[in-house]
Amino acid sequence: MVGSTIVGPDICRDPDWVPSVIGYAQNVFMLAVTFKLAPDIARPLVALFTPYIYRIHSSRRAIRRLVGPTVDQKNAWAREQPQSWKSHVKHDNEITTLEWLVETSKPEEATVPMIAHRITGVAFGATHTTSNTITNAILDLANDFDRWAPPLRAEIEEVLGEIQLTEITNSHLSKMWKLDSFLKESQRFHPPSKLSVNRKMMQSHELSSGDVLPKNAHVSFAGVPMSMSDEYISGPDDFDGFRFERLRRNAETDHNGLQFTSSYAGSLHFGHGKHMCPGRFMGSLISKLLLIELLKRYDMKLQDGGRPKNIMFFDMDIPDPKYEVLFRDRQA
């Protein structure tokens, strides 16, 4: 689903696409871990001997090979039939990220290596964060399935009726407040990182408390303590899947600020302001579509009872990859 949006159905169905994207994400993560454990002075030497560097380059070469013909084709189209190309980009609802990059890049940047590099970065960002979001939501759903599934299924049935997965639009999803709330509550308990709004100080700044943030310092907001504080959330230690749905319905003014993709002081996991995660809308869309299909087709149960604890690695919050969730076909 992610690949189809980024590069289109033909490339994403190539046998090399998924292994290359997943392999890139895994090896970038492992390389980052290795570098974190090594002293700064030793990192160039570590890079020579770690296998992750070579695997990353291998994934990049594979992705460059996959997107190269399409980039050349789109560039030729843009040169030879500029009006037709601009009309396609502007009006075609199925334009891919790859086509958008070719259209918006400067001529000297619309090369195969540059576009492939950007596509690799987009795919990396879309893969690991979205998969963690979906996995956490499934674990939270299966942890108390009989409580959460019936209202979610009722909402899905009310909004969609007989509409199939491929026919669902953003308009349909915007009406599913319970599903949106469940994802936001799941993220509140299990965000991708314990820190939010990571920034580098370009100049020194004195806070109202008198503390000084020096130039070049890296600063972050304590996203998790803020989202688990009763200053912003009532009963913050209780998992309430429909908490934000009720808050939205009872809000006297801007209820949109309580959506999964929105932020406020108690919800900074996508960042805040104009520099919020630009891919959060696609991540939300994919997460909702997958959960809708799973809820329509399966019952779920945790294997051993009780939601498994996530694994903490530095500031990252990761679902246990070894834990199994049981699925039962509702038609069986």
TrEMBL record:
One of its GO terms (molecular function) is monooxygenase activity. SUPFAM superfamilies: Cytochrome P450 (SSF48264). Heme binds at residue 277. Keywords: Heme, Iron, Metal-binding, Monooxygenase, Oxidoreductase. CDD domains: CYP503A1-like. Its cofactor is heme. The keyword Iron applies. One of its GO terms (biological process) is mycotoxin biosynthetic process. Belongs to the cytochrome P450 family. PANTHER family: CYTOCHROME P450 (PTHR46206), P450, PUTATIVE (EUROFUNG)-RELATED (PTHR46206:SF4). This is Uncharacterized protein. It comes from Penicillium thymicola. The lineage of its organism: Eukaryota, Fungi, Dikarya, Ascomycota, Pezizomycotina.
